[in-house]
Design goal:
alpha/beta; 5-stranded mixed beta sheet; 50% helix
Length: 119
Amino acid sequence: MLPFKVTDGGVLIIRLRADLDISGRAASAWAIDGCLTGHRSAPVVLELSDAPLTPAAMSTVLRVHHMCRFAGAPLAVVAAHAEARRALTAGNAAPAVHPTRSSAVAALSATLTKVVAAA
């Protein structure tokens, strides 16, 4: 089970090891899918550990990005490691990447406030 919590503002924060190996990729994606199912449409912060990003972790981040888009849940990724941030922002359909959890939560909270104000 991956560590996760929900902030007072309703943002789901999930921690993922940046050095995830291929054997843990499917289990991590399955666990994250379960979290997303339990918190429908809640904004999600995927927080990577401070380690170099492995291909399996990159694949998991992209899979979570796809799952969140499908579920209509805004996603922000936290990557303290500069090389991981560069790798995550290299693609065209990359998720929003932040250096700290607080900046990611603030960005998602601002998005959530705009949606509520527009309704």
